[in-house]
Specification:
21 strands, eight-stranded antiparallel β-sheet, six-stranded mixed β-sheet, Rossmann fold, single chain, Elongation Factor Tu (Ef-tu), domain 3, 7 helices, alpha+beta
Length: about 425
């Protein structure tokens, strides 16, 4: 899809797909991304020359494409992925941001970070090993983060003789547990990242597979409906008051649209004050526009001079979010220090910030068996649990299932200012 700027929306239409990779150690995630970049001609000549030099110095017979994403020295020395590596590339149809995430259990928090904004998740499975515990773990996290599209890449098919029965067996096993999870769209592709089969070009060794290649699938995923265009939500980030003679009467409320569609003339309500007004104009970098929708950043002006400040939320009067101080949240603990029940933290939600305490640990998830443990109240690094928070100020929220922006939050340690957990409102 080509870029298009319209006067009506003020929106530069870049068909951008964010996707994350996940898999067990040595499933070939970094090699797959390297192959995708290499075969789609998204590697610069100097990058290719550097890859060739490093591969020769390591005594390898061919270019090691995994080195494109394994950028840390420790990653190259150990042959594993540790940090989240972001890569950007484009085809004539779409632009892409890739988050190559680690496969080790101790780096689950890195996967949560990389997958939090993804439209799609690529879950790799080694054809020789089939579905393993990490596969279940990554699928559960994809479901927890409400990633709309999951593409299961069954890799290293060349090492099992391109056997169709192996592919079908893994597909059957995966569906056996994924049916219990909330994933809207699951697709399966047999590939060989090392050889390039079904990554960008079709495989001559798997003529029994008549589906699309990985790149074709990524280019044609329908993502326009993944955002919430039904419930208007506008968290106010900044109040614009220019100190110039030309704009001395201008008072705009800047932020990014988190949901729904806003138009001039719409009747709106400001939370928490519940003052109401109408939208006078919607301004963007290119001038006034006739509508605003996610993920546009705009400035709204209102017909009435009412009190609006950072942390407030502008919504329509007939579609209000939940407003409350007792909030049930599914969390992934990101900090090496374990969670302290009844301890106080800062909660950051959209543009609003408040203090909170963890009132109750409802249960902890065993993400290998997907069972709930109601007895264990100790939450440590990389563990997932449902908790109840009590905030000092009301938050304006939707469930994470309904809106990934207004349904997500983070907790910050008051003493160290470290982000200790990511939360999805139930």
């Amino acid at each position: 899809m080509t870029e298009a700027y319209t006067k009506e929306t003020g929106y530069l239409d870049m068909e951008l797909l964010r996707f994350t990779t996940a898999g067990s150690v040595d499933d070939g995630k970094s090699t797959l991304i390297g192959r995708l970049l290499y075969d789609s001609k998204a590697i610069f000549e100097d990058q290719l020359e550097a890859l060739e030099r490093v591969s020769v110095n390591r005594g390898e017979e061919q270019i090691n494409l995994a080195l494109l994403t394994d950028g840390l020295r420790a990653e190259r020395e150990q042959g594993i992925t540790i940090d989240v590596a972001y890569r950007y590339f484009a085809t004539p149809r779409r632009k892409f941001i890739i988050a190559d995430t680690p496969g080790h259990i101790q780096y689950t928090r890195n996967m949560v970070t990389g997958a939090s904004t993804a439209n799609a998740a690529l879950i790799l499975i080694d054809a020789r090993n089939g579905v393993v515990e990490q596969t279940i773990r990554h699928c559960f996290i994809a479901s927890l983060l409400q990633i709309p599209h999951v593409i299961v890449c069954i890799n290293k098919m060349d090492l099992v003789g391109f056997d169709e029965e192996v592919f079908e067996k893994i597909q059957y096993d995966f569906n056996g547990f994924s049916d219990k999870l909330d994933i809207k769209d699951i697709r399966f592709i047999p590939i060989s990242a090392l050889k390039g089969d079904n990554v960008v070009e079709r495989s001559s060794g798997m003529t029994w597979y008549d589906g699309p290649t990985l790149l074709y699938t990524l280019e044609h995923l329908h993502i326009s409906n993944d955002r919430n265009f039904i419930d208007p939500r506008f968290p106010v980030q900044y109040v614009i008051r220019p100190h110039t003679d030309e704009y001395h009467d201008y008072r705009g409320y800047a932020g990014r649209v988190a949901g729904g569609v806003f138009k001039p003339g719409d009747r709106v309500v400001v939370l928490p004050s519940m003052f109401d007004s109408r939208i006078r104009s919607i301004d963007s970098m290119g001038g006034s526009v006739e509508m605003a929708f996610p993920p546009q950043s705009v400035s709204l002006t209102l017909e009435d001079d009412i009190d609006v400040s950072r942390g407030d939320m502008i919504v329509t009067e007939n579609n209000l979010p939940h407003v409350g101080q007792d909030i049930t949240v599914m969390i992934c603990w990101l900090n090496e220090k374990p969670m302290r029940q009844h301890a106080k933290y800062w909660v950051r939600h959209t543009t609003r910030e408040a203090r909170c305490l963890i009132r109750e640990v409802n249960y902890k998830i065993d993400i290998n068996s997907l069972e709930k443990d109601y007895g264990d109240k100790n939450i440590g690094l990389n563990e997932i649990a449902e908790v109840t928070l009590r905030t000092t100020q009301p938050l304006f929220f939707d469930s994470y299932r309904k809106n990934r922006i207004t349904g997500s939050l983070i907790l910050v340690d008051e003493g160290t200012n470290e982000t200790v957990c990511a939360g999805m409102i139930v």
